[in-house]
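Record type: ASSEMBLY
Status: queued
Input:
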Amino acid sequence: MPDRVLKAMSMPLLDHRGPQFSSFAAKISADLKKLFRTQQPVMIFPSSGTGAWQAAFCNTMSPGDAVLLPEVGMFSTLWGKNARAMGLEVIEIPGDWRSGIDAGKVEEALKADSAGKIKAVLATHNETSTGVTSDIPAVRAAIDAAGHEALLFVDTISSLAATDMRHDDWGIDVTICGSQKGFMLPPGLSFTVASQKALAAVESATLPKGYFDWAPAIEAAGNGLYPYTPPVSMFYGLREAVDMLLEEGMENVFARHARLASATRAAVSAWGFENQSINAHEHSNAVTAIRMPDGVDADAFRSLVLNKFDMSLAAGLGKVAGVVFRIGHLGYQNDLTLMGALSGVEMSLGLAGIKHEKGGVDAAMQLLSEAVGA
Amino acid sequence: MPDRVLKAMSMPLLDHRGPQFSSFAAKISADLKKLFRTQQPVMIFPSSGTGAWQAAFCNTMSPGDAVLLPEVGMFSTLWGKNARAMGLEVIEIPGDWRSGIDAGKVEEALKADSAGKIKAVLATHNETSTGVTSDIPAVRAAIDAAGHEALLFVDTISSLAATDMRHDDWGIDVTICGSQKGFMLPPGLSFTVASQKALAAVESATLPKGYFDWAPAIEAAGNGLYPYTPPVSMFYGLREAVDMLLEEGMENVFARHARLASATRAAVSAWGFENQSINAHEHSNAVTAIRMPDGVDADAFRSLVLNKFDMSLAAGLGKVAGVVFRIGHLGYQNDLTLMGALSGVEMSLGLAGIKHEKGGVDAAMQLLSEAVGA
Amino acid sequence: MPDRVLKAMSMPLLDHRGPQFSSFAAKISADLKKLFRTQQPVMIFPSSGTGAWQAAFCNTMSPGDAVLLPEVGMFSTLWGKNARAMGLEVIEIPGDWRSGIDAGKVEEALKADSAGKIKAVLATHNETSTGVTSDIPAVRAAIDAAGHEALLFVDTISSLAATDMRHDDWGIDVTICGSQKGFMLPPGLSFTVASQKALAAVESATLPKGYFDWAPAIEAAGNGLYPYTPPVSMFYGLREAVDMLLEEGMENVFARHARLASATRAAVSAWGFENQSINAHEHSNAVTAIRMPDGVDADAFRSLVLNKFDMSLAAGLGKVAGVVFRIGHLGYQNDLTLMGALSGVEMSLGLAGIKHEKGGVDAAMQLLSEAVGA
Amino acid sequence: MPDRVLKAMSMPLLDHRGPQFSSFAAKISADLKKLFRTQQPVMIFPSSGTGAWQAAFCNTMSPGDAVLLPEVGMFSTLWGKNARAMGLEVIEIPGDWRSGIDAGKVEEALKADSAGKIKAVLATHNETSTGVTSDIPAVRAAIDAAGHEALLFVDTISSLAATDMRHDDWGIDVTICGSQKGFMLPPGLSFTVASQKALAAVESATLPKGYFDWAPAIEAAGNGLYPYTPPVSMFYGLREAVDMLLEEGMENVFARHARLASATRAAVSAWGFENQSINAHEHSNAVTAIRMPDGVDADAFRSLVLNKFDMSLAAGLGKVAGVVFRIGHLGYQNDLTLMGALSGVEMSLGLAGIKHEKGGVDAAMQLLSEAVGA
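Status: finished
Output:
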């Protein structure tokens, strides 16, 4: 987390029912529209991203409704689990955890649903467990091509601020995000944007909403008056984080993430390792999942890196636990912190006796030099 | 908020999936048992207290079940609203907002429920809007006397750390709390303790749980491994707050709150004002709601205090909006910060031209001197 | 210390040789001119106020030179001690520690110095140990009336930001200040303003200057380039403190201090105690020293207050150790924090069994009500 | 600065005249003895290191006394300037700014001083401007061999915590240090240790001491009662910094610095550049000064690095301004932050079109891998 954000979070707390806090909070919601590229209100819930998933179901669906879930990795799988927990039927399009959403199969599945049982397509924009980014406009086009009424839900938890994302232009119905990735904040807040079509679905939805009712959250987005006691220090951190992103400029933020991601891939390639993501146009700007050679335990390698260089690499999750390790390049990072991380990996590969080519660090420097010098 | 807590919250974040965080988090849950006086696990959700209310419903009830709600003020009313939002029937025992739960009426209502439709009694321990504390053991006795199977839910959001509260000894089935009052933290975490009987009810409950599923939260209380991304900085603050309370000693914490509350009431009495709470044994240790003379707008008075002395008094809520103002004496306060506040009120009464007797501040000093000198 | 200042001081450090820091530092020096009411550069040394005393001697005097010291209390005495340590002769005008500088005696002493041995008059603007403020323009007039060439040195360590102080208009030659009082900062920085006449004296002064050489400090005040490694975090705190004072407006800052001081004196009077300061026009806006009745140990009383109410009162120093205790009302204080303090004193007087009249707190409230209501 | 130190510095301030602060401060001085390897008290002044230089002169010398100054770089030159400002004669042994103190020449100069005019030898342990560390025991031996009474003053401002330093065992008379390097603190405190012989010299010294009087500072080192208002927040930071060093263990701290220094030199060598330090046994653990090829402006290069990679490299100073740039590896650094820095330099060399060999980063990784893997 950036120092600016940490400091902001430790400011003494404003009275959350006072006019000063409400105008402060309303201004944040207004500025969040720029990040989500929308004219719709940005709802904030004091919850993790899972809470925002659940809110989307409660507000737009009824028990027994179905959702279409293209499986792309661990987090899309958890999304399906939450849907089932809410009493929904999950129709899954199985995936290989190495590529993004297959828009053709989405279209096919929707066409097959002549009864209109499917109420939403659950699209994970960036799958954190695999480092694969899916093509959301293609999913939108698939829904349209099928002539199906299903809503398009998009989870942007690990894509926001790493790569371009446009709620309105891309025809998304529900965009879901969390505070702990691109916003460089601790976890604790979730964000939701709903289209007019999604809001219309609220009227006929019968799942109980309670805590996750969108209606007061939409009001709060407008007037800053929260129906619950808002997590004030998180709002302070959010204010600072949004300012930092807007000061850098979203185009520059995306370019920085793209550069760091390319440099990481250059290193992975040079080491002779395989990227978990197999399609070049789907490689993630936010995280790279690296497959270890057969017979090498990725978790043992991560332990060695932690032990020798005090650096935490992200673990493989679910089906790829022990198979991949992940280098995150999302959020508060720059060229030199990335080079420190890549150096740590290259040195550790040697120390661990894992067969690899030298030159990953050199390849990354080559790429960054060209990008920065351009 | 205490400086110690603010500093703790701005510490750099541990990796929440690492072993260091999990043992840190498990230790907090263990220490929380001392505050809730229980052997049961203390579940932590990243939500406001409303989320914990909802969790209790989802985990123990089914659509159409009924709850018995003794109305004691604004927050008990909101609790009923959440129950209705979850599809439950709310059987209300109307109250006057000036006294606590009438255990006799609880017994009566339960006896009348021969069909056993009522699944829980919703008891607000300290009603923040009125400054009235209810006798929870009496409610327990009433349920027992009625021979009814209903669970006893107790909201301790504004009583914990202000007054004695004992989950196990008092036979509570679900204790619910939040981070923003006695814990001296920002809002953002809720706490839940469930009895064995409440846990047994989970099996037959059919409301969808999802985000609010108790099962993984109970596991996390044991091993510190959270099913969601935990709000790490809040956990740091919680660690510090729990340490501060245990260092002072809970008996001393209660005695301090009782002393400050008595001094406040002595001032109110001397000014010739009425306490919203009418029964001496129910006066709150956490907050005192003061009724303004007829024809005096409490909110106009609060504005004057804010304007002249930069002090925020709490507003009257719901039925007593504009009628009462409230002086909080919960959390990080001592004799002299209270005297500052009471002086501000007494001076403002004069400045506002509100008819009152002088001598409130003197009466409070008299009481504190005796208590401190004892 | 205000939260704003504490936060500012914990910002990550700028490179102190970089252009960003130098323009930041130069801007602070420029803004400090507004507080010292001067067009001359404001020099900053990383030292306590004692260092600034010494700097003034080194830069303007030669071994064996004399200074005229009107004794007003403990700090003026220490100033003389520093002068002697630097090899200067100190001609003292003895004082009673209860009144300010007697301008008539200054004039007299200067007239008696026909040889012109006296190079400076050392005037303490506010004597912290006694709560007495001296009339600096009167001292200036005395020097002029004597037709003497002596420089006028004024120590404003505890007067700056509490009461009006004007380097240029009042004809001061060297104004000396420190960071730890009116600036609401930790100790660690000293401030010096020198008149053209004082700067001219540098040429003939032969005391060794070294660390305390004014010349590079004057350059640094202009360009922000410090000859030594500057205490960067102190500069951040200073920036914030200066902003806070200028935002409130110096006239408002003075009025607030005057009001709190008057309220304190009203309480002292009502208790039946004597103010160490005996002349009404010299009562300090910054601190009030209160004489205990004969036979009462002020330090024992201070211990009781600390023990019972966790409040530190300032001790009597030097000749009045054990005789007075002091209530500071300088810096980051408002009406209600003062009322908390006065309440703590009044309650403790009772607990200590010290004979006094009740009603000090009431008298202070009366005064503040009138001032705030005006 | 480490987060732990920043947090410590923003703690609310203890009353500096209270018993809690004095025992806290005395404990710090006691622990500092372990870092200076001494049984003598460690004096703390609120000043930069320059102040400690001056204090050493004032307390042990008289006007006209001479000091012997082996010139090793910019900071030794400034030391001589301070001596001259204090009215001392400076006998300089000219140096090439690329090697350390020539003990033979020290012996020679002392032998030539049959009149005993030289009162002290001023030895800079680590010269920050050149990255050269001198052999202090050799200087001690030279003084002894000459049979001269001169005191041995050692400036350890940039060597403490980077490399072994032993006040008592090495026979140092006055050790001088500052807070802003190995202590990882902001500038603002200086440290002094005096031998019995140095303390004996105080009696006959006639330079005015004032602010820099050792006597009260020695008392304060013992009882924590400071003669001036101590910079409390700096003391908090110092406490934390000393704890961090002692927790890591001084041997480990030295080993870490040695490893990072070696890796840096491996990179410099691989790039084909020259180290400003020409003798292998004198290469600094704290900083490496790198000579640019003829015709290349080191400052233009530093600007490019700042601009492209947001990294501040230290400038060449004095005679080597524009000729060298410096990589600091002192204080709060680890293998990966160093690798980030070296990568930034290597990429920038390419971007700047400066002729160099590739492979510096690889060479550094090679060295670190071997050291860490050992």
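Annotation: The mean pLDDT of chain B is 94.
Annotation: The longest helix of chain B spans residues 250-271.
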